Amino acid sequence: MKPAAFDYIRPGSLPEALAALARHGAAARILAGGQSLVPMMNLRVVKPEMVIDVNRVPGLGEIRVDGGELVIGALARHAALLASELVKKHCPLMAEAYPWVAHGPIRNRGTLGGNISHADPASEMPAVLAACDAKIIARSAKATRTIAAKEFFVAPLTTTLAAGEMLTEIRIPSAPAGQGWSWQEEAVRKGDFAMAAVGVTLRVAGGRCTQAGVAVGGMERAGVRLAKVEAHLVGVALDEARIASAAKLAAELVQPGDSYHADARYKRELVEALTVRALTTARGRCL
Amino acid sequence: MTATIPKHIAAEGYIPASRQQEAPQKTYKWIGKNLKRVEDPRLLTGHGQYIDDIVMPKMAHAAVLRSDRAHARIKRIDTTKAKALPGVILVMTGEDAKKVTGPTAQFASPPVVQYCIAVDRVRHVGEAVVAVVAESRYVAEDACDLIEVEYEDLPVVVDPEAAIRSSGDAVLHPERGPTNVAHRQTYTYGPIKEDFAKADLVVKRRLRWGRSGAQPLETTGAIASFEPGSGKFTLYANSSFINYVGWLVGASLGVPAAKLNVIPCVTGGSFGSKLFTHKVMTLAATLARAAGRPVKYIEDRIDSTTNCDNHGSDRIYRCELALKRDGTMLALRFQVIDDYGAYLQFGYGTHGNSLCQIVGPYRIGSIEMELVAVLTNKCQQGAYRGFGSEVTNWMLERMADAAADELKMDPLDLRRKNLIQPDQFPYVIPSGNVYDSGNYPAVMNEALRLADLPRWKKVQAEARSQGRCVGIGVATCQERSVFSATEFWSLNPTDTPGFTLTSSPESVQLRVDPTGIVHVTLGSPFWGNSPETMATQLVAEQFQIDPAQINVVYADTQTGFNSTGPGGSRFTVMIAGAIVGASAKVKAKMLRIAGHMMETHQADLEFRDGKIGVKGVPGKEKTIGDVSLYAHYFRLNLPEGDDFASGLDANYVYDHPLTTMPAKDRSHLGIFYPIMGHMCHMALVEVDPRTGKVKILDYVAVHDAGTVVNPVTLAGHIRGGTAQGIGTALYEKFHYDETGQLLTATFADYLMPTLYEMPPEIRVGHVETPSPYTEYGIKGGGEGGRMGAPGALSRGIEDALSAYGVRCDELPLTPRRVRELVRAAERK
Amino acid sequence: MAALSISLKVNGAAVSRTVEPRTLLSDFLRDELDLKGTHVGCEHGVCGTCTVLIDGQAVRSCLTFAVQADGCAIRTVDGLAQGGQLNLLQQGFWEKHGLQCGFCTPGMLMVATELLERNANPSADEIREAVSANLCRCTGYYNIVESIQHAVTLMKQGAK
Prior knowledge:
Oligomer: heterotrimer
Number of strands of chain A: 14
Strand content of chain A: 25-35%
Strand order of the largest sheet of chain A: 4-5-10-6-7
Structural class of chain A: alpha+beta
Number of domains of chain A: 3
């Protein structure tokens, strides 16, 4: 399974990369980790005319904290993020989800930016970013814009990135003190794409929930926030009954899609079970 | 030995006498040792020389354009753009190929005709429609993208029961008749009606065995070159049957066997899928002849999943097991519908195979099988570890567990009650095959001991008290070894049985060189078994020399003797026979010569520690090297006569140690797979009823493969086979949708177990009940674990979910499927 | 597109070649450099048979274009044995029957090499994590884990 021929450039700076992207538009693909793109190219499912290898663009791989936000450059590798103390501290949901992402060698090369841009609904990180109110910084040769993660993913393998735009940075508000979190996932085998996944952030004060972020993975579209479930949780005590009803609501709300490994009905059941687990665990982590 | 023989088989002389030369011993020097594998150093350094590692000068590369639809007439193929692409050497359609190359080899009768490239119609997604030869595989695939094919869609059949009813344009091979039923026949062995009439209870089940496949990490490939002056083909291939039926590829190519030399390669796994890679060899050779350059064709992974010609069994069973109220099994009858896919290369051999152990380890008196073989728009079946017997093993264990449930008996007690007893061997089963020896209660007891069943039951009880679902499953299964060729045709119609071969030998050439090194030439290749190590240990034992004095090599088809190949767990047994036979000749000559050198009577000499010496006289000896040097170069110093001809070598063809013809009327199938191993697998599993996820908490596998040559390598096969059994039971399926698209064509969807899906350990136990018929009493064990794991796991899951009353009668038991079973039970 | 020049180190030796951009690193190693030890199993990044080290990290060479390796240091199974001697990791596999057909073995050796170079004393869980990244169809994995554990022991003995 060999890829079709393509032209290749390896820009040495971000302006160079964006200029190339502007020139070639939809005929070009950005090559970062390649762990999602190259299999598709080898299968000839995609045949870009131009491949823009951004791996040598300096300054795109940073992981830092800036003004209450965890700032992750597009080229930060999954392996670096999994090992990062900053991620553990400022986005524990991401840290908990990362061991579920693929396997070591894939994580060595794969980038968060590439993974998010690829928008595979069964991938973990889109749901994490949606649950954490992350912002995506997209740049073109002409402009920069900020997109909320929960609005970034429009369809399977499709984001709101326009032709000529590249994801350069992801900004996640630092997890506030006392916030609980939980990532729950079911895949057929460990490391596989999720059949269903639920990522939750919660805050509790005076016995009531004051904030909830609930996102699902493995459904029809990546990075879906379940606003109605969050509304069902905020302002009330999170006892077993409330968690159970929230989970039921989640299962009703999702648009699961159908696949060979998990049909819609099964996915809904998984969402319900995983939401119970996630809410219970997150609640237990609230301080 | 007093044999147990059913009444419907004439007892007089039914079982031939044993030809065993080497009886099992209590101690050996080399047999039974965990010798480090001879094969490993070159594999560890990356110098294996697998098919894709081989390069020939001016070699070109082939790719195939695969059909994207399941059933269609090919109306038009436009290859103009492809041919014009720079770097393309040749583009060949099925019509082009058919002009020069005939149908590929196959064993069905009447034949199901297949060509290496589809000719006028495609019959499954993935079938080759056009082949391209180019300077690189990259360019060949570019050319495939430029080919335009116009199809006229035909009705698609993917459901085997629908296939039975299908007609008209839905028929895949109309030249064979107006039906997709390739064969329907009922086979009766023993007094089935009478036995059912005696039953207190008839347990009925419908069972569904899903379609999985070997999928070794190395795909199938071949490199062919054609020398026009001599008209001779040279082929490198990762194929096993080369010295058995390799010449059939020549027949497809229209050349006599003298014009075809097949050179074996180190093979990266097969599990049956590379037994006979005739289509790939035929295709590569056809392209090489046309291109005028050597051509390499290696299947890529999608070629393999969609077009490997080696999917596993795909069966629906409707079974009835007749029992007495006390649990005694009387008789078994069943209908099996087997979805063979689009072709039928091995005939109904996978059912012939299963009839060799169709009663399992139980004293069932009669069997009736209605076989309905159907053709559908899927990749055809080939061989996968068990070759059909792993399916009937599972079927039998499902029926035994079902009977235990209906009789409210402990499944272990039910099995114990019916096991063939140690004093009943050799045991002839209703279909006519023999079980040579065994001690099934000992195997079960060893498994129970290793598992510590009381501890497992405690774990289960504790889990249940916490609301968790934990279950125990036990399977006691046969593991036949050393197939006879009759399994390929004994089920064919008696008036047109097809190619009625009755030989399945293994050969070896032994040669001691002037320095005393023993060279062993095998006629069968390496495929992940340990042929060099086995041969080394056996020759070392025969000659009492150090393994470092032994060199094992592989013959091609020009120099190889009749050798069937690895498969059907036959190789170690058969090579042992060949080595014993060849060694006897060489050793006899060495004793003659040594006796002459030392002026001693041959009877006073023995082989010891790399020497030949006088028994009881430590100092009076000659090294093997001394004797061999003398044998090669000192003719005039030795007596006259052929007995002292210069050199030390012998060939030996070892035929199957115990096989007989089927009865003419097929009231029995003769003896065809008698070297019978046995296993007991036990699984402790936890199931999450909410998610359907299964976790294997503990696992035990006890095998009886007779005398064990190398315990560590055998344990490797047991564990590896169990891993594939876990895959078959829980994860793997080639799933075709209703339009015939294969939804699980990549490794992202065809899911094989990683380390995380395996139990924390698989405790392996051995019981050794030697065979009275094979050399040293060795039995085969290579297929191993896959033949028992599905039964143990199915029951474990069922037991875990006993509160729900779930039945695990369909494989694979994926999370989705298990959840569906729980959901259905909850609704009731 | 015309071929591009790349310069890299492979098993310690400097290499300069021109390659088409689409040439996969797996094919570059095998066909251009004749290093046949790295095997190809699936070409979509799942089986791990093609694993090599790039700048010390385990990477699937079937998902990497050779042009991306420009300026990098690649290590493959072909470079493990020194002077015709199996290294201690390979020795561990030999002594503990860590292979049957040998096809997945180069990939397993390379993930193990990455692991042991990061951590000479890995926990059982860390070894399992490394091995679970790759498929093996023959062994059931246990002997591969044991082989790596044995290599750790051999290395400790060697260090004394």
